[in-house]
């Protein structure tokens, strides 16, 4: 596997209403197939130690995870250096069934948005109801962030993880940085706590 190189060099923004950090590259595998099939559930359990997530849900356990992306697509997360082995394991479990498992690690970038106003920052950019009652831990949204596609979920109470295409990483970082500028908190979601 190639050496892990991030899209941007140590992109980080602090001092605003939320912190924005480009994370080190992580392993990401796009899986397509019949999500209800027994072989799929068995493959997920063996590859990442997790079951099939519900619609618009994500399951994370340490450095491994599985996210629902569409009715026939999942995004598996694993350590970057274990992607090839994980794909080999999936391929063996899939057998001759019509499925696809492809390494998308180098085609994606991952950001962490953290702080008391992280919901407010994302709400400025994405057409998603981010109220604490509507968007809770374990949920994922595949949506747009201003003009580009993205997916995000709650990592813990005040932090989110966001995945975007690597080719738009600079644009996404600039958007998040602008939305997190000091003094720009609308106090909408953070005040609802």
TrEMBL record:
Keywords: Oxidoreductase. Its EC number is 1.5.3.1. It comes from the Bacteria. The keyword Phosphoprotein does not apply. InterPro entries: SoxG, TrmE/GcvT-like. Pfam families: SoxG. The keyword Oxidoreductase applies. One of its GO terms (molecular function) is sarcosine oxidase activity. This is Sarcosine oxidase subunit gamma. It comes from Sulfitobacter pontiacus. The gene is soxG.
């Amino acid at each position: 596997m190639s050496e892990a190189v991030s899209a941007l060099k140590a992109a980080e923004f602090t001092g605003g209403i939320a912190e924005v950090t480009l994370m080190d590259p992580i392993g990401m595998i796009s899986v397509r197939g019949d999500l209800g099939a027994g072989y799929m559930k068995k493959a997920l359990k063996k590859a990442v130690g997790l079951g099939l997530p519900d619609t618009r849900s994500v399951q994370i356990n340490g450095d491994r995870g599985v996210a629902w992306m569409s009715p026939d697509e999942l995004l598996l997360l694993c350590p970057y250096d274990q992607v090839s082995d994980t794909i080999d394991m999936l391929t063996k479990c899939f057998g001759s069934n019509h499925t696809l498992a492809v390494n998308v690690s180098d085609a994606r970038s991952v950001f962490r948005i953290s702080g008391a106003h992280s919901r407010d920052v994302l709400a400025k950019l994405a057409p998603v109801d981010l109220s604490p009652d509507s968007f809770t831990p374990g949920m994922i949204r595949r949506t747009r962030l201003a003009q580009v596609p993205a997916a995000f979920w709650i990592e813990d109470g005040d932090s989110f993880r966001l995945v975007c295409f690597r080719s738009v990483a600079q644009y996404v970082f600039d958007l998040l940085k602008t939305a997190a500028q000091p003094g720009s908190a609308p106090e909408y979601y953070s005040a609802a706590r």
